[in-house]
TrEMBL record:
Residue stretches in coiled coil: none
InterPro entries: NAD(P)-bd_dom (IPR016040), NAD(P)-bd_dom_sf (IPR036291)
Gene3D superfamilies: NAD(P)-binding Rossmann-like Domain
Domain of life of the native organism: Eukaryota
Name of the featured protein: NAD(P)-binding domain-containing protein
Domain NAD(P)-binding: 89-297
Pfam families (UniProt xref): NAD_binding_10
CDD domains: SDR_a5
Length: 339
């Protein structure tokens, strides 16, 4: 059953799900985009369970574009975190946004990279205690030494390659090697003391034999991502799997840290979250990166897989109006709109 749309008050950054029902506030039905500068909230419906999550991506309208700023003052309201987060795939389209946001939050970050020099070009010179970079390749299990994981409390894995043959496949960088063997090697090497592993996968992994997913899976990308998911599930590690739609916005590979912190997300601003692999659509890399960080400490998300999409601003306004008029939209069980 679809959850009902609601508005919640402005809150400072929080990574804990709210234990109280969202506060309802009346909103004018003529809301314009400029009147919606409030942090995102994601409502995840799982049958009778409804929880509210408060990510910290803050929108602003600049030259008719929506800018998702990851460096607003509201995001730095909590004291320095005791977490030590290992990001694997930290120079990719999603990974570099994850790393930039972790550093801005003053969270100790560790990277495993094939080319450590990329970290300096993207994130600048950092104190080693704040950002430590290891040279390694998840495709080679011998590269993943125990010393790389010392002190690490959480892991975000956002490695990946293209679904169809491209230049990114050069050097044995196929989906089988990256999404299956790489994930398998990483999971097998991780210490059992970890508090959470967040794996970025893809929508459609459970429907690779159905259209349109069978087309995307012509070279096995969905099959191998599902194999990686299953290997993580079979481990004794606490995990959450995030399945975004087709990634949009970026990647911002040629930009520096300051640019990453002011990444542009076009007009796909509201977030659609579901379970059961029912979503079809696109997802902003910025939203996906933020969701990865938020999922590190959400207790209710442990052992679960969530699909995530982004939707157009005009649709977001339309859904607000539906709510104000006490109308309902059948989205299907486990699918919710978030504003």
């Amino acid at each position: 059953m679809a959850s009902k749309l609601c508005s919640v008050p402005e809150l400072p950054f929080s990574i804990e799900p709210s234990s109280r029902a969202p506060h309802r506030s009346l909103l004018p039905s003529y809301l314009s985009v400029e009147k919606l500068p409030r942090p995102h909230r994601i409502t995840c419906s799982r049958s009778s369970l409804h929880r509210t999550v408060v990510p910290t991506v803050t929108p602003a309208v600049v030259n008719d574009e929506i800018t998702e700023s990851l460096n607003s003052e509201a995001e730095i309201t909590s004291p320095a975190s005791s977490k030590v987060v290992l990001v694997v795939g930290g120079t990719g389209g999603v990974g570099q946004l994850v790393v930039a946001s972790l550093l801005k939050r003053d969270i100790k970050t560790r990277l495993i990279l094939r080319d450590p020099d990329k970290a300096f070009s993207l994130f600048g010179e950092q104190d080693e205690e704040r950002l430590k970079v290891w040279k390694g390749d998840t495709r080679n299990s011998q590269d993943l030494r125990p010393s790389m994981f010392e002190g690490v409390t959480h892991v975000i894995c956002c490695t990946g390659t293209t679904a169809f043959p491209s230049k990114r496949w050069e050097g044995d960088n196929s989906p089988e090697r990256v999404d299956w063997e790489g994930v398998r090697n990483l999971v097998a090497a991780l210490p059992k003391s970890l508090k959470r592993v967040v794996l970025v996968s893809s929508v459609g992994v459970t429907k690779s034999n159905e259209l349109p997913w069978s087309i995307m899976n012509l070279f096995g990308v969905l099959k191998y991502k599902k194999m990686g998911e299953d290997f993580l599930r079979s481990s004794s590690l606490p995990f959450t799997i995030l399945r975004p739609g087709r990634l949009t916005d970026g990647p911002y590979t040629s930009y520096d840290l300051n640019t990453l912190l002011k990444a542009t997300a076009g007009q796909r601003r509201a977030v659609l979250v579901g379970q059961g692999d029912k979503l079809v659509g696109e997802a902003s890399r910025i939203v996906v990166a933020e969701a990865c960080i938020q999922l590190l400490e959400m207790e209710f998300a442990e052992g679960e897989a969530f699909e995530i999409n982004s939707i157009e601003v005009l649709l977001r306004i339309f859904l607000f109006r539906v709510y104000l008029n006490n109308q309902s939209i059948a989205l299907g069980d486990g699918v919710s709109f978030y504003f």
